[in-house]
Specification:
Distance between the termini: 32 Å
Order of helices and strands: HHHHHHHHH
Structural class: mainly alpha
Number of domains: 2
Helix content: 55-70%
Oligomer: single chain
Strand content: under 5%
Number of strands: 0
Largest sheet: none
Bound molecules: heme C
Radius of gyration: 29 Å
Length: 259
């Protein structure tokens, strides 16, 4: 049915490989791959240092990722203190009133009316600059607000900002590495899979950021997808670099047959 259209005969030649590339191309590809690899390691180091210990424990963990995107919603620092170490300083009725205020959004107007009298009476002997203790200052609203916010993780707005930068940026890097990797000589199924993998990983990783904001269980997806990206790039880069410099083509001897 295509006969009327312009068609070409299918090429009978084999695809281009690294050993068909000029020295100039090999130098270009090698430098790019090395730099991209370095950039990836740098990104990992940055990630580690910025996520390390968000949950208060050293090391990058699933909890760190969940706390970053989902937040630590088990409550506010104020409520946990009132139920824990500070419980002795407040009556049960007053505590319920403070908790109610926290759940209703901890507004300044309600603070002046309902909460300040309680705190002035029970807490500021210790919780003020005058006490000399290293504790939050509860003599005014801003000091209390600091321990009264529910931690809901990174905002949707900044998530959208980081996402689009990552999608464009990592997408282009994946294209660059993939364009070099296409010259590798490998079983077709393996090469196709490895070519697609970084893109699938980027998509899953960034989708998982949003999903984690919704449910912290997706922090595992963030880690798995991130690992998948690292692994597939490492393979593409190592295989390419190896084949660029070490793989030779078989010289033609009589039978012309290549796989
Ligand atoms: C006798 C002194 C004293 C009184 C009274 C007192 N606190 Fe504290 N509070 C402390 C000290 C000391 C700490 C820090 C050590 C700790 O966390 O156990 C602290 C810690 C806290 C924290 C934890 C801050 C953080 O970094 O997470 C909160 C919240 C808090 N107090 C709230 C209150 C409230 C509300 C009251 C009044 C109902 C109150 N405290 C009464 C001495 C006091």
């Amino acid at each position: 049915m295509d006969q009327e259209h312009h068609t070409e005969t299918c090429p009978a030649t084999r695809p281009r490989r690294f050993y068909d590339c000029s020295l100039n191309e090999k130098l270009l590809y090698s430098s790019f791959l090395l730099l991209a690899g370095l950039a990836y390691l740098m990104a990992l180091a940055y990630l580690y240092t910025s996520f390390d210990g968000i949950d208060g424990k050293p090391g990058l963990s699933v909890e760190d990722i969940a706390d970053n995107y989902y937040g630590n919603r088990s409550g506010t620092r104020l409520e946990s203190a009132l139920r824990g170490p500070m419980a002795d300083y407040i009556e049960t009725g007053q505590r319920s009133q403070v908790v109610k205020w926290l759940k209703s959004g901890a507004s300044e107007a309600d603070y002046e009316r309902l909460i300040k009298p309680i705190f002035d009476e029970q807490c500021v002997t210790c919780h003020s600059a005058a006490s000399g203790l290293d504790v939050p200052d509860f003599t005014s609203y801003p000091g209390i607000k600091e321990v009264a916010n529910v931690d809901t993780g990174v905002s949707l707005h900044s998530l959208m900002k980081v996402s689009h930068i990552h999608l464009f940026g990592i997408g282009l890097v994946a294209l660059g590495i993939g364009l070099v990797f296409r010259f590798a000589l490998l079983p077709a199924w393996f090469q196709h899979t490895l070519t697609l993998l970084p893109f699938i990983a980027i998509f899953s990783d960034i989708s998982a950021w949003f999903l984690t904001k919704w449910d912290p269980v997706y922090a595992y997806t963030v880690i798995i997808a991130g690992g998948m990206l690292g692994l597939s790039w490492a393979l593409q880069i190592i295989i390419s670099l190896y084949q660029i410099w070490f793989l030779r083509c078989r010289p033609e001897t009589g039978s012309i047959d290549d796989g």
